[in-house]
Amino acid sequence: xxxxxxxxxxxIFLHLLAWAILLGLPIYFIKRWAVGQDFIWLYYINxxxxxxxxxxxxxxxxxxxxxxxxxYYYISVIVLLALFYFITDRSNEMVFKYVPRRNDTERQxxxxxxxxxxxxxxxxxxxxxxxxxxxxxxxxxxxxxxxxFFSLGLRVLxxxxxxxxxxxxxxxxxLNSELAFLKNQISPHxxxxxxxxxxxxxxxxAADSQKAVLKLSKLMRYLLYExxxxxxxxxxxxxxxxxxxxxxxxxMSDKISLKVSFPEKFEDICIPPLLFIPxxxxxxxxxxxxxEKSFIDISMLANKxxxxxxxxxxxxRSREDAESGRSGIGLDNVNKRLNLLFPxxxxxxxxxxxxxxxxxxxxxxx
Length: 366
Known about the structure:
The protein is α+β, with helices and mostly antiparallel strands. It is 64% helix and 12% strand.
């Protein structure tokens, strides 16, 4: 289901909801306490003026002054508050100008009744008209400063949230660029090694080399289309590894022992492509020999939300590898990808000895 309340829409909705509550309160007061019309007019005037102060500061002064030239912001706030104080003062006088006042006879009666009442002065006694202007100044100062600080804090928090969001987007773009670069490194490297294997096979068995070309076309189709979508299903990745292993079997001799165990029933989760193939490729490149006995043992366990992968091969060092001292870019590449994709959620162990090379990889996808 599409979520309509995201980003600016949720802010607009909350603002409209707040205004609906504020403008609807007088209706509740009228029905419950029979409030006079003078109070309703005064409430609406002060509420609208408070809203104007809030939105001028929220939409204009903070973005254009506070974040750029802060000293002009404080001057603008003082001018804004002074201007609307005189507007509210004048509007209040206009409202109370039409409010019925007590005549002199009523004032004298109330004054005499208060004199005859025993006890100390208290509620109900008449002490003259309260200092309306002073009360209005206090209420206006408190309310307007609250609105200024509230709108300022709200705008600052929104700006901070936008800055964090932009920073995360930049980091995500950087991550995607690095992952794309690393994945593009894998494909040529993988293709180069596979072509070398087919080239060696052509001189041995032409029929098998034709089968190898067909297998290679399936592998390249996966590299070009499936892996370019960002993520792939675990079943597709397992199928890709099985095709690669079948391709490598074409040039294996009886001296090589190969054991492969992939899960038959598993949760078909989405995973980044080409995570495991560098280890398998490395095993076939450095772990088999046509002159002496060698072995490769590949296994995978797929639990709920996690994968355990293991690849063990015999250690056969060719003269070229011994002279260069390199093991290829595949292992370094996949280690960098794991750091970028699963920080703190994976464990990679590589155990080397003179006769074996073991890779243990655990990934938690949840």
